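To: structure desk
From: M.T.
Subject: fold request, one chain
Message: Could you run this one when you get a chance? Sequence is below, nothing fancy, just the single chain.
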Amino acid sequence: MTDTEIAGYQKFKEIGCVACHNGAAVGGSSFQKMGIMEPYQTENPAEGRIAVTGKDADRFSFKVPTLRNVELTYPYFHDGAYWKLEDAVDVMARLQLGQKLEKQDIQNITAFLKTLTGDQPQFAVPQLPPSTGDTPIPVPFEKE
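Reply: Done. Structure tokens follow.
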């Protein structure tokens, strides 16, 4: 890793990102409220996990994403409001951790996050034959 990437990793740990983004996938194993220190302003009506649980405590609680390949998974957040990784780093630091980062810290953390990019898995989508009158209908969909 470069000095910039290492500085970004150190800052990532120092400010507390590792509280939610940890483990082999660097996140992805918990739900957290979006907007702990400042409310998240969005036009998107999604209110998070409350839609599944019905519990008010889960309002604005979203799955913490893995940071593996994060530079390839834009736009960011549940509403896709941010297209630049640097902007997502800035917003998360302010809203979740109450940290106003310097431009250099944002650049360093972004450089570190880009080290988490790896090869994307490749898989072939099966090519199905065209449907005909003789194509069997799956049992749950047969009309009686």
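Reply (cont.): The radius of gyration is 20 Å. Let me know if you need anything else for the meeting.
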